[in-house]
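From the methods appendix. Each design record in this collection lists the tokenized structure first, followed by the designed amino acid sequence. Records were kept in a plain field format so they could be parsed without special tools. The example shown here is representative of the layout used throughout.

RECORD:
FOLD TOKENS (247 positions):
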């Protein structure tokens, strides 16, 4: 997020990241600072909130836009409209004053919402060195530029994009029964009814989750082996994906 408002101001950029890799990201950024006068500092006095509209939200966008000056950051989620808005404020800020009529949910509510929409987030959903940008749908979420200069993995990503062949994607999945509370091992295999490998489980909770699946099998009956038992699941294409996305 850009904090400064004009080119004449000293640039201030606020980077949102997975708290589990805060130290690693700082070290990574400092590798590229070289001799530039850039200060990289964690903002431990700030808190992050997701503002997810309810079913009777009405014209949420216009009402939130009017409250934008009440917080450090209050802006539409850059990934997709269905994820609502991102709110960053000082710790201890009165959220009901910033967004009148709001209801504070819990982190499970938030994860349930993004699993339902097929939105990955953080290193658990996007394991470093394992998750590929295009398979993770980052091109649909303003996460990849095909016009800027070089970055790590740029050649493979650009080539795959222009060839238009992406055989696997992260998709929302719905289970026939709630997942066990102790969770499922990351990368657990998902199979078709005939026993073919269809993909791998990535993350989830309750009856919802996300999985990296082969697009050729997403319309078939699928199952996941949990402690020797088979749990059926169905995959779906998110409505927020571009309508032209055929692969």
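DESIGN:
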């Amino acid at each position: 997020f850009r904090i400064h408002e004009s080119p004449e101001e000293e640039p201030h950029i606020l980077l949102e990241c997975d708290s589990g890799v805060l130290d690693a990201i700082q070290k990574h950024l400092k590798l590229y600072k070289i001799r530039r006068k850039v200060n990289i500092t964690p903002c431990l006095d700030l808190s992050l909130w997701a503002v997810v509209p309810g079913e009777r939200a009405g014209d949420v966008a216009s009402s939130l836009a009017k409250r934008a000056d009440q917080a450090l950051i209050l802006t539409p989620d850059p990934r997709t409209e269905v994820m609502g808005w991102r709110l960053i404020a000082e710790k201890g800020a009165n959220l009901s004053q910033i967004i009148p009529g709001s209801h504070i949910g819990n982190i499970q509510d938030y994860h349930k919402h993004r699993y339902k929409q097929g939105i990955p987030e953080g290193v658990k959903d996007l394991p470093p060195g394992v998750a590929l940008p295009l398979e993770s749908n980052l091109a649909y979420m303003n996460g990849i530029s095909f016009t800027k200069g070089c970055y790590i993995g740029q050649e493979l990503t650009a080539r795959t994009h222009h060839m238009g062949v992406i055989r696997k994607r992260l998709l929302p999945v719905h289970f026939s029964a709630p997942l066990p509370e102790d969770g499922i091992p990351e990368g657990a295999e998902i199979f078709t009814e005939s026993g073919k490998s269809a993909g791998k489980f990535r993350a989830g909770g309750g009856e919802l989750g996300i999985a990296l699946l082969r697009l050729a099998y997403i319309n078939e009956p699928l199952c996941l082996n949990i402690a020797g038992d088979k749990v059926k699941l169905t995959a779906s294409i998110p409505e927020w994906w571009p309508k032209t996305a055929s692969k």
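APPENDIX NOTE: The first strand starts at residue 46 and ends at 51.
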